[in-house]
Amino acid sequence: MFFFTSSKLEYDRHNDHEQKQLLAEVFSGVGWEVPRLLDAMSQAPDFYFDRTSRVDIDKWSKGRSVLLGDAAYCGSVGMGTSMALVGAYVLAGELAASTDDHRAAFARYQAEMLGYVKENLKPLPGGVNGFLPRSRRAVWLRNQMIRVLPHLPMKERMTGSMERAASAITLKDYAG
Ligand SMILES: Cc1cc2nc3c(=O)[nH]c(=O)nc-3n(C[C@H](O)[C@H](O)[C@H](O)COP(=O)(O)OP(=O)(O)OC[C@H]3O[C@@H](n4cnc5c(N)ncnc54)[C@H](O)[C@@H]3O)c2cc1C
């Protein structure tokens, strides 16, 4: 994966070649293994390029349609699969619990999930700059921080909040 920050880019969404060139320019001269990776990218048949973005929505259902997983609540750091699976379990359970009223089941599904989802969509400390540091010095600092973190007395403050978010739902034992 290649990630970079920039102001809004204009590019042809259907032109893989142009997008590959764009990436090659952004990462030219970086060194390390990057030239080899750029070369592999230029030949990749399943190349995908997009802006990282998230659409926040208030209501996950309308009529007989309901959203689940990334379609409803994407954008967590490392919890997307868990939320999709937990959401599938809760949605199936709520539908089974009220087979004659899907609207009520959809509303309960969202109510059951909302706190857990909100907890897992909180940005990491440092936000985008923590994920994509803006300078070599900042990259170095970030890497040192990750190296020493497991040995710090306050490590639970970071890892503990992730564990708390991951467990921020009590799953019901849906009958049937
Ligand atoms: C690079 C990357 C790294 C990630 N790392 C992690 C990680 O470490 N841990 C983690 O928990 N999560 C991670 N995630 C997030 C995780 O992959 C998603 O949150 C999760 O896959 C969401 O599951 P989903 O079922 O909602 O959607 P998806 O897995 O995207 O499934 C949607 C499916 O619908 C199909 N589809 C789309 N349109 C149509 C259509 N019109 N008709 C029929 N089918 C269609 C798609 O082909 C796809 O198979 C990562 C995501 C990315 C992109």
Brief characterization of the structure:
The chain has 176 residues and is mainly alpha-helical. It contains 8 helices and 2 strands; from the N terminus they run H-H-E-E-H-H-H-H-H-H.
Structure description:
- The protein is an all-alpha fold.
- The chain has two domains: 51 residues, no CATH class; 123 residues, no CATH class.
- The protein contains eight helices and two strands.
- α4 runs antiparallel to α5.
- The longest helix has 19 residues.
- The mean pLDDT is 91.
- Bound molecules: flavin-adenine dinucleotide (FAD).
- The site of flavin-adenine dinucleotide (FAD) has 11 residues, from α3 and α4.
On the 0 to 100 scale, the average pLDDT is 91
DSSP, total strands: 2
Number of discrete domains: 2
Q: What structural category arises from helix and sheet content?
A: mainly alpha
Low-confidence stretches: none
Series of H and E elements = HHEEHHHHHH
Shape: globular
Specify the number of helices.
8
Strands of the widest sheet, in order across it, are: 1-2
Q: What amount of the residues lies in strands?
A: under 5%
Main β-sheet description: 2 strands, antiparallel
Bound molecules: flavin-adenine dinucleotide
Calculate the terminal CA-CA distance, rounded to whole Å: 42 Å
Radius of gyration: 21 Å
Approximate helicity band: 40-55%
